[in-house]
Amino acid sequence: MYICIPNGRFMNDSKEHIILISSILFLQKSFKEVTMKEIVEKTGLSKGAFYHYFESKEKLFLEVLDYFFKQVSHNYESYSKESFYQYYNDYINDTINLTRKYLAHFNDEIDEVSITMNYFSLIFDGLKLFPDFRDMIINGYSKEIEYWTKAAERARNSGEIKSNMTDKEIGEAFMYLSDGVGMHMIMRGMSVEDIVKPFKNLWDKFYEEIKA
Q1: Among residues 23, 95, 180, 209, which is most buried (max CB within 10 A)?
Q2: 183/143 Cα distance (integer angstroms)
Q3: How many H helices and E strands in the chain?
Q4: Nearest to 33 by CA among 44, 22, 43
Q5: CA–CA separation, 5 vs 7, rounded Å?
Q6: Does residue 53 contact residue 64 with C-beta atoms inside 8 Å?
Q7: For residues 33 and 29, what is the distance between their CA atoms, to the nearest angstrom?
Q8: Dist. CA 84–CA 174, nearest whole Å
Q9: Measuring CA to CA, which residue among 116, 122, 154 is closest to residue 23?
Q10: Whether the Cβ atoms of residue 212 and residue 162 lie closer than 8 Å to each other
Q11: pLDDT tens per residue, the chain (212 residues)?
């Protein structure tokens, strides 16, 4: 199938156009399966115009990863600081909104299920290819745990929750529950709303256990 961006939406920014077309291909296939020849053809650009921006598939893939993570990175600072319950619900709503905002760039050329199904494939290809990318992922997880830990600490200090678990353990429990359950739902080909439902249910039950 020939991939295009209708109405020339991104043609005024050739670099973004290349990244978006490449993103579709890398989400549909593996890094190894996608060829530079295929990418150039799908963009509709001349070889000279294309290679002006990207001289190798590796550098292009890094830009695709960077674009992806900038689009779907959670804004933890915007989540509620008054309630742990509202904090994790803000996270859920943000997850849905970020996924749909990212999808909107592709004008229906790729759907929610394709994004969720191939999310981990994109990451694992990056981990295999680029050692620095592994460090970025690890640092990202560490920062995420810090935000969850601070949210649990605030809730404990306010009297909202009470538990023998440490604040960090509570944060890790919420974070790892979403990762584990999310992966199982992703493998079943669920949409983002269907993916968040089961771990929200578990989060709600866990919250009832630690609520003061």
Answers
A1: 23
A2: 21
A3: 9, 0
A4: 22
A5: 7
A6: no
A7: 6
A8: 11
A9: 122
A10: yes
A11: 223 333 334 334 789 989 999 998 988 888 899 999 999 999 998 888 888 899 899 999 999 999 988 888 899 999 999 999 999 999 999 988 988 888 888 876 776 666 666 777 888 889 888 888 888 888 989 999 999 999 999 999 999 999 999 999 999 999 998 887 777 777 776 777 778 888 899 999 999 999 99
Helical spans, DSSP H, in 29-106: 36-43, 47-53, 57-72, 84-103
Q: How far apart are the first and last CA of the chain?
A: 56
Phi, psi torsion values for 33, nearest 5 degrees: -75, -30
What distance in Å separates the CA atoms of residue 9 and residue 6, rounded to the nearest whole number?
6
Contact 122, 65 (CB under 8 A): yes
Handedness of CA 43, 44, 47, 53 (dihedral sign): negative
Token duo for residue 43: 């963009």
Instruction: Write the DSSP symbol of residue 211.
Output: B
The three-class DSSP label of residue 161 is strand
Residue 10 token pair: 């991104």
pTM, full prediction:
0.83
CA 148 – CA 125 distance, rounded (Å)? 28
Residue 107 is predicted with a pLDDT of 73
Q: What does the block give as tokens for 188?
A: 């079943």
Bridge partners (DSSP) of residue 161 are 211
Query: Residue 133 has which token pair?
Result: 């990318």
Distance CA 67, CA 72 (A): 9
